Q: What sequence folds into this?
């Protein structure tokens, strides 16, 4: 379907706006820097007050796949279900099920990186097949 | 002009226009490149990593990208909520997001009366499990195969170009067909069925942990995965990661979620919680919804969608 001139104008204007867009966030909001680790990294903390008692439950999962650490942050909900941000709509009763789903969804080859000024070479994941040709 | 949003299984006109518009917006264009997205991230969110090939992308890919960015912004940091999910803003953010897509589709079609169709997945949820992924929806005339690669019909020509890996790194990948895995995930072997039971919108802690409220029930965290979340898990494949809008089933799901919300508001009033000054930052009635395309809005602006669209039916079982 060929876009009309009017449609093309609308979409081009939107793209132009996007190319200059500067997002403003409310105070306190932001994106976590994955390279920075703090005391909460790898831990899930649940805290409640019950009958005047402050209760804190700290859960720490250490995941390994094929003998190597699997750097997935697992959060535990108050109902005991587990969640990870890589699968944003999922909640699991078991971390084993979570890891199985991660393998089913994410295990696939990815192209070499060519974006940005500092073109870091793509590091192969464990179990990855050969890189996409021409990438 | 306000469009009418129809059940995709009841209107072949709505179906055909939706499919036509998807294909049109999924065409790669020279002014939308992977480098452009990379530069956007460097300018706004350098913590979000993006890698891969520099290629022409599409307007549709921008919507995929927008969804990922919204998911990566924590509201506030460390809360478990993000700018589009796991909090009160879930419903108004997706409404705002879909209004723009709908407007772009209206432009592409040259039809200001076009409304995004919805998929009443609760109706399919009443079918026997083995039939749920074999309905007409998953055929070439609609949105293609429910399992493995989508190759049939016009949706078979759509391509996934932007994809997020398990470490939440964005990749510009070799274009490939959409992939699905309907009914195979251990987490959701069957589709949801709906039940309206909340008479308030949301409550503290305004998150996945909220024990009640229409928002958390509809998002699907209570006894999850349920409702909206369950559809994502049930379809699987490209509906699983943060780049889930790659699958046009995403918008059919969210349009139905929006319809259920609209049905709830007609019954319970156009109420929203929390209102300032209480509630988490980024989720209040007057807090700007995270936007990268088009004009900005706040939840208050979209509580009544009448100026943009209405639904053919607000009957929710």
A:
């Amino acid at each position: 379907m060929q876009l009309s001139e009017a449609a093309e104008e609308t979409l081009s204007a939107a793209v132009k706006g996007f190319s200059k867009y500067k997002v403003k966030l409310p105070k306190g909001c932001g994106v976590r820097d994955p390279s920075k680790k703090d005391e909460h990294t790898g831990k899930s903390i649940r805290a409640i007050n019950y009958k005047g008692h402050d209760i804190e439950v700290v859960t720490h999962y250490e995941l390994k796949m094929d003998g190597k650490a699997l750097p997935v942050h697992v959060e535990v909900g108050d109902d005991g279900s587990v969640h990870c941000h890589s699968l944003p709509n999922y909640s699991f009763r078991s971390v084993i099920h979570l890891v199985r789903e991660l393998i089913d969804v994410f295990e696939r080859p990815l192209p070499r990186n060519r974006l940005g000024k500092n073109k870091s070479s793509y590091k192969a994941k464990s179990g990855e097949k050969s890189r996409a040709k021409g990438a | 002009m306000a469009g009418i949003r129809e059940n995709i299984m009841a209107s072949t006109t709505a179906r055909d226009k939706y499919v036509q518009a998807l294909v049109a917006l999924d065409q790669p264009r020279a002014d939308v490149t992977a480098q452009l997205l990379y530069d956007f991230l460097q300018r706004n969110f350098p913590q979000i990593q993006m890698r891969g090939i520099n290629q022409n992308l599409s307007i549709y890919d921008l919507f995929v990208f927008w969804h990922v960015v919204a998911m990566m912004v924590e509201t506030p940091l460390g809360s478990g909520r993000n700018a589009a999910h796991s909090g009160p803003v879930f419903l108004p953010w997706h409404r705002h997001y879909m209004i723009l897509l709908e407007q772009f589709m209206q432009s592409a079609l040259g039809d200001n009366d076009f409304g995004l169709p919805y998929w009443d997945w609760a109706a399919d949820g009443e079918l026997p499990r083995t039939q749920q992924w074999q309905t007409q929806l998953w055929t070439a005339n609609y949105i293609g195969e429910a399992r493995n690669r989508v190759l049939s019909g016009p949706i078979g020509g759509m391509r996934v170009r932007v994809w997020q890996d398990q470490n939440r790194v964005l990749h510009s990948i070799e274009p490939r067909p959409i992939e699905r895995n309907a009914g195979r995930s251990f987490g959701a072997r069957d589709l949801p069925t709906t039940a309206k039971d909340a008479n308030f919108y949301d409550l503290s802690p305004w998150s996945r942990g909220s024990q009640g409220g229409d928002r958390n029930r509809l998002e699907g965290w209570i006894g999850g995965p349920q409702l909206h979340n369950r559809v994502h898990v049930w379809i699987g494949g490209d509906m699983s990661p943060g780049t889930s809008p790659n699958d046009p089933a995403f918008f059919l799901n969210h349009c139905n979620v929006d319809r259920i919300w609209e049905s709830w508001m007609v019954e319970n009033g156009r109420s929203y919680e929390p209102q300032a000054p209480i509630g988490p930052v980024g989720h209040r009635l007057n807090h700007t919804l995270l936007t990268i395309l088009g004009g900005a809005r706040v939840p208050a602006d979209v509580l009544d969608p009448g100026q943009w669209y209405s639904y053919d039916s607000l009957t929710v079982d």
The CA atoms of residues 147 and 181 of chain B lie 5 Å apart. Strands of chain B lie at 3-5, 29-33, 50-52, 56-57, 73-74, 147-149, 160-164, 170-176, 179-181, 309-311. Chain B has a mean pLDDT of 95. The first strand of chain B starts at residue 3 and ends at 5.
